[in-house]
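This part of the workshop introduces the protein records we will be handling. As an example, a complete record with its sequence and its structure tokens follows.
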Amino acid sequence: MKNNWSSAAAKKYITKYKNIGISKDLALRVYTTRLLGRNSELVLHGGGNTSVKTSINDIDGKKYNVLCVKGSGWDMGEIEPEGLPAVKLNPLLSLKKKKYLSDEDMVSFQKRNLINIKSPNPSVETFLHAFLPFKFVDHTHADAILNVTNRPEGFKLCNKVFGDKVALVPYVMPGFMLAKKVYEIYKKNPKINCLILMNHGIFTFANDAKEAYSLMIKYVSQAEKAIKKLKVKKIKQIKKFSTKFEPHEIAPIIRGLLSDNHPDQKFIVNYKINKHLKYFTNGKHVRTYSSKGTATPDHVIRVKPFPLIITPKKNSTLDDFKNIAQKAMSSYRKKYISYFNKNKKKVKGKKVMLDTSPRVVLVQNVGVFSVGKDLGAAKIAGDLTETNAKVIASVEETSKYKFIPEKDLFDVEYWSLEQAKIKKQKKLLEGNVVVVSGATGTIGFAIYKMFKSYGAEVVLLDNNLERLNHLKNKISDLCIPCDVTNKKSVKNAFKQICEKFGGIDILISNAGTAPGGAIGEVSDEHLRKSFEINFFSHQNCASEAVKIMKKQNINGCLLFNISKQAVNPGKNFGPYGLPKSALLSLCKQYAVDYGSYGIRSNGVNADRIRSGLMTDKMIKTRAKARSVSTDNYMRGNLLLDEVKAEDVAKAFFHLATSKKTTGAVLTVDGGNIAASLR
């Protein structure tokens, strides 16, 4: 493993943070923590922790010896000084001789001794960092270390690979008791500079930031070299076979099954495949080795103790896959319930079972579908699965994978301190996938912001590449170039959506243009072009969406931006109003044809919204056609108030969340009796 320490970079960190009042010690701690955190073979997504012992002046003027330790759940790769909360060191050290400390008391004690009570919760391994009498302490879950430890001969191999400066620690659940165990081991051998925690990870420590980091790289490199020397026997693979479906076609089926007949319990399903995952998933004995536990204990809170494995038959159709997947999901849930009931009897206190849906679905000869309450959680599950796959497969090539007992894994999965890392208040649309066409326009972007604020995963479709690229620089959400008048382009966009999110829950068909002209004088081409964008584009998107929604079988919602022109035609505006009238009928037809599937279809009739469609030039033209000023035109409603894009977005949100409303059209125009529906 490469040592990425740079003296020049270290100096830059020291200078940068000195300018904002951060000490050299903490600046170097941030630097080396990032070096460790940005190496995916060392830690992933909030795993691992680091610390530095230093001193801080509190607001009372007193100087305190403190332990700046990584806050629970913080990502080491992007950490800032505030992610290393300062805990008064002497109170921590005073508990060295204490025989026992409950998790609740441990957390409370750490919080009480924070210099700043607004700081994040210190790591569950704070006491371990405190008890080691070194300035810098580094902890990772290095793949190579886990490869050496997670096997029956793990102790023997470690003793062979590492020197006398390394002490081995049998598995103990993280927390105060692990800290006590480590301290006892250190007292017996104070010359050590490294601890290998069996089935867990590695600690290195020194009084210098560079040395502590370099020791980590040194010992991980030793593990890597040792693994390369072992005799390798490749994992037997299943025979390759063809299927009559693709990943994007089965993702909605999997997503629907995950909800367990609860339409409000939705998950994001992210497809992933590479050589490591393919090799692991297609192993002949994957059911055996994948069920032996995660590479390191804290992974279990993201991926559960075992995955769901589905093996399609040769030349399987979608219907075949659905039947096999249903049976596999049912078996998984029974297995998880059995796992819970067996292990809850072995622990103190009442445990409430988590949902029984898997967080990883391995489909042999297809790939991995990782699961989460949102896209971030699903991607994390995928990354951890890849790490687990690498470690487990590598061990299986040279030995037999062995992890901690099931009961110990259960303790971590149901440990309140670990669950707190991922626990967050659920937003109304969490787990929902929303697709917006015409997304770069004023109304489209207002819709995006509205649905995003309620926790939805929002996909933006538009054929304006310049505006789409501009959006990509502003937001992290999926932006897909898509010509909604082209069926092939729409199919390709929805394929990408299914592979990334697993399906779709809400389609907001918003694309449109506003061509004008006297209806008896416009060309056929002009009129047909308007129908393509203002009618057929909506049909293209809606027809693809309902196919996916039917596969999911967890309801769905179609929302159309119709326009008051559908019921209140304006002079010289027929090329726009006619396809919008047809769109109104289309909206109602979808409500009629798909209501029995739990798929709702509603529309919004908006009027006079300043946007890319209704430009200043167009407003002047329409105002002239009605013989009024532009201001009076925009305020030409019963409320005498201009309607804005945000008002339209609210209407779409209302219809999306009104679960017993379908075939309805909501007018957003400030009041216009002539345009009201009859």
